[in-house]
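Q: What residues go here?
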């Protein structure tokens, strides 16, 4: 009987603690900023479709200048921190490290080699959170083609090289700020 009462008391205490924790978390989440509903304007454009992406891909291929390695068109945007763009690449850009964001790529068309990891050689600050270098020591080469999904965590060297010279390469690029670990 004593052990049954002890178990009941422990279960009651655990339930009360869980309820208090849920309330605290619920209150915390209820105070969190909520993104306004999609409006379609440039700062809050959260929906797109295949037809629009195809249109933006065509536009990037038209607007790229002969001396440019890359041209991009934003497709989605949620405030200043989150955006997705289609990027048409016809030659490599310098190796890069983003210190405060991860990047997700989807290869829409074309092919290239993706160098991931390693250490930037001769790194310089591009801005407050991005470094560029003139090469990479120790990276791993991955051949990527249409349909490849790529997730590059923050603080990871990455760049595309050996881009298909005939058609270039088009990627959908999503920048994901990572100020702190999250749970899901």
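A:
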């Amino acid at each position: 009987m004593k052990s049954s009462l002890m178990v009941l008391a422990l279960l009651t205490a655990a339930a009360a603690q869980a309820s208090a924790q849920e309330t605290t978390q619920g209150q915390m989440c209820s105070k969190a900023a909520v993104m306004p509903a999609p409006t379609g304007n440039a700062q809050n454009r959260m929906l797109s479709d295949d037809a629009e992406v195809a249109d933006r891909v065509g536009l990037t291929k038209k607007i790229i200048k002969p001396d440019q390695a890359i041209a991009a068109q934003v497709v989605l945007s949620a405030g200043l921190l989150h955006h997705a763009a289609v990027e048409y690449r016809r030659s490599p850009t310098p190796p890069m490290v983003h210190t405060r964001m991860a990047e997700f790529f989807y290869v829409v068309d074309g092919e290239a080699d993706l160098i991931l990891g390693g250490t930037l050689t001769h790194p310089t600050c591009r801005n407050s959170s991005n470094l560029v270098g003139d090469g990479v020591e120790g990276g791993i080469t991955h051949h990527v083609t249409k349909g490849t999904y790529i997730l590059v965590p923050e603080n990871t060297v990455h760049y595309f090289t050996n881009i298909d010279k005939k058609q270039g390469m088009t990627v959908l690029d999503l920048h994901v700020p990572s100020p702190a670990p999250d749970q899901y």
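A: Context that may help when evaluating the design: The first strand starts at residue 44 and ends at 45. The chain has two helices and 13 strands.
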